[in-house]
Amino acid sequence: MKIVIIEDEKLTADDLAETIGKVIPGARITAILSSVKKAISWFQKNEQPDLIFSDIQLGDGLSFEIFKSVSTNVPVIFCTAYDEYALKAFNANGIAYILKPFDQSTITAALNKYSNLKNKFSENAINLDKIIQLFDANKSQANGSVLVYHKDKILPILFDNIAIFYIENEITHLLTFAQKSFIINKTIEEIEKITPDNFFRVNRQFLVNRKAIKEASRYFSRKLSLTLTIPFQKTITVSKLKVPDFLNWLAIH
Fold first, then answer.
1. Count of alpha carbons within 13 angstroms of residue 25, beta-carbon side
2. Could you report how far apart the first and last alpha carbons of the chain are, in Å?
3. Among the residues of 72-194, which ranges form H helices?
4. Do 164 and 206 form a contact (C-beta atoms < 8 A)?
5. Residues 225 and 109 in one domain
6. How many angstroms from the chain centroid is the CA of residue 200?
7. Residue 162's domain spans which residues?
8. How far is CA 174 from CA 59, 159, 171, 177, in A?
9. Are 111 and 61 in contact, with CB atoms under 8 Å apart?
10. Are residues 60 and 124 in the same domain?
11. Is 50 in contact with 76 (CB distance < 8 Å)?
C-alpha cells in the first residue's frame, strides 16, 4: 500500500509514519509533504497513492485547498487537533479521522475503516465543499474554549476571555483579561490551530488576542513592539517577517 502523509510538524509526521509501519508492515510512505504548496506540486507530478493521511491546518493554509486544486479520488484520513465538533462533520461525510495526539490504536481503527470503505470510494465520495462549510461553521461556533488544569479541577476557559497565550520555561500558559494565569497541557502550535481568527501568533513565544492589543510601536530591526490593555511584564515583539501579515490582520480585526 502506498501512503502519502501531509503534515507540517516533522516529529508528528515521523511518528505517524513509524506507527503506520507497525500497523501495516508492508505499507510504503511515498512522500511526506509539509505544506499546501508542496503537496499540490507533488500530486501534479506523481502517481496517486492508495491512501492519504493529512493534517487539516498547515503553515500556509488548510489542506482542503490541496484537494480543491488537484483531481484525486484517493480516500483521506484527516489528522486533527480539533475537538469532537469537527470530527462529527467528517464522520457524517464518510471521512476517517485521527484526533491528535494519536496512538497505535487510533491509527489501526482509521486504517480498518479505510479497508472497509475503500471499494466504495469514487470521485464523488468526498463532498469537500460540504466538509469545508461544516468545518468553518463549527470553528466559529463550537470550539469556543480551551481546557486548563487548576489544582484537582479541569476548567474550560472561553477564548473571548483569554488575552494572550505564551511560553515560559518551555511550558504553555494563558493569561485572561481578569489577569488569571493557567498552565495548558498543549503546545502553542496546537493552541494556534484551534484559536479563532482574532488571535495572531506574533512570534514563536506569543499568541495574542486582538482585544488585548492597546497599541503597536516601532522596535529594533524593523520589528513591532506591542502594548497590551492589561498588565504584562514580558516584552512582546512582532517578528519582522510577520509584520506585514500582522498589520493586515490588525486592520481587519
1. 0
2. 46
3. 84-92, 104-117, 128-141, 188-194
4. yes
5. no
6. 14
7. 145-252
8. 22, 10, 10, 10
9. no
10. yes
11. no
The cell for 46 is 506523481
**pLDDT at position 140 over 70:** no
pLDDT tens column, 102-115: 788 888 888 887 77
CA angle 32, 33, 37 (to 5 degrees): 165
Q: Model-level pTM greater than 0.70?
A: no
User: Could you tell me the three cell numbers for 243?
Assistant: 509584520
* 52: CB partners within 8 A, 6+ apart: 3, 4, 5, 6, 72, 74, 75, 76, 77
- For 198, the grid coordinates are 482574532
Check if the beta carbon of residue 89 is closer than 8 Å to that of residue 134: yes
Give the amino acid at 244.
P
Tens digit of each residue's pLDDT (9 = 90 or more) over 148-178? 877 777 888 999 999 999 999 989 999 999 9
Among residues 100, 125, 141, the one where a domain terminates is: 141
